[in-house]
Amino acid sequence: MQTGFQSRRAIGILGGSFDPAHAGHLHISKAALRVFGLREVWWLMSPGNPLKARGPAELGRRIAAAEALIDTPRIKVSDFEARAGSHYTAETLALLTRAYPRERFVWLMGADNLAQFHRWQNWEDILARVPVGVFARPGDRQAALNSKTARIYRHARLKGRRARLLAQAEAPAWAFVSLSMRNVSSSAIRAAGGWQSG
Ligand SMILES: Nc1ncnc2c1ncn2[C@@H]1O[C@H](COP(=O)(O)OP(=O)(O)OP(=O)(O)O)[C@@H](O)[C@H]1O
Ligand SMILES: O=C(O)c1ccc[n+]([C@@H]2O[C@H](COP(=O)([O-])O)[C@@H](O)[C@H]2O)c1
């Protein structure tokens, strides 16, 4: 589905609330750079997850905290979604590919999001538009691999060493990476009082 001039290496898009950003985000972003041979990973700051009742902390604060954590120029923070006024990933990716016609994108997410991916708005459009890299997360591996999306798109999964070809693959294509996991989450940080949310 992606079109245009695409000889440059792909950009990974890690969408999230980042409320706050933490070592788990950094860990999967670096793994994505390495495993999928990406040029960069962009942390796409969500104005608010449509499936979460509670709103996140103010965008500027989340961006500042994320930028303070990042320790490589190959990971960047993007406010594209807020600027575009989109809350839904399918719409955001349509706008993003239109705004950057020369780039090739890969959607990145944790296993918890694969488990409920079929509840996302126009979720099949996402799979038709970009390859998807999924990262194992403690406790979420089985639910993700048994999910509706994983079952329906079984044929499109790149397994084993073929996962490394994800960024060059034609959509629909997805890969599950379970090299190592980090047991850290924004909700645990908030619960421990390490971050005041919105
Ligand atoms: N430790 C982790 N391992 C793998 N993926 C992760 C990890 N932490 C976050 N992610 C993924 O990064 C993306 C953005 O995550 P998000 O900003 O919601 O953080 P979170 O820790 O999941 O937040 P919360 O605990 O509030 O749900 C999501 O796709 C999520 O699955
Ligand atoms: O488009 C949807 O319906 C949708 C539903 C749930 C989550 N998302 C996106 O998934 C990403 C991860 O969300 P979160 O809140 O788990 O960080 C973030 O970019 C959200 O906008 C998108």
UniProtKB/TrEMBL annotation:
Pathway, per record: Cofactor biosynthesis; NAD(+) biosynthesis; deamido-NAD(+) from nicotinate D-ribonucleotide: step 1/1
Domain of life according to the entry: Bacteria
Domain Cytidyltransferase-like: from-to ranges: 13-191
EC number: 2.7.7.18
GO biological process, one term: NAD+ biosynthetic process
Cross-referenced SUPFAM superfamilies: Nucleotidylyl transferase
Keyword annotations: ATP-binding, NAD, Nucleotide-binding, Nucleotidyltransferase, Pyridine nucleotide biosynthesis, Transferase
Gene Ontology molecular-function annotations: ATP binding; nicotinate-nucleotide adenylyltransferase activity
A UniProt-annotated Pfam family: CTP_transf_like
Gene3D superfamilies, A to Z: HUPs
Reactions mediated catalytically: nicotinate beta-D-ribonucleotide + ATP + H(+) = deamido-NAD(+) + diphosphate
CDD domains xref list: NMNAT
Record HAMAP family: NaMN_adenylyltr
Protein function: Catalyzes the reversible adenylation of nicotinate mononucleotide (NaMN) to nicotinic acid adenine dinucleotide (NaAD).
PANTHER family xref list: NICOTINATE-NUCLEOTIDE ADENYLYLTRANSFERASE-RELATED, PHOSPHOPANTETHEINE ADENYLYLTRANSFERASE
Family, per entry: Belongs to the NadD family.
Protein name: Probable nicotinate-nucleotide adenylyltransferase
Species this protein is from: Pseudaestuariivita atlantica
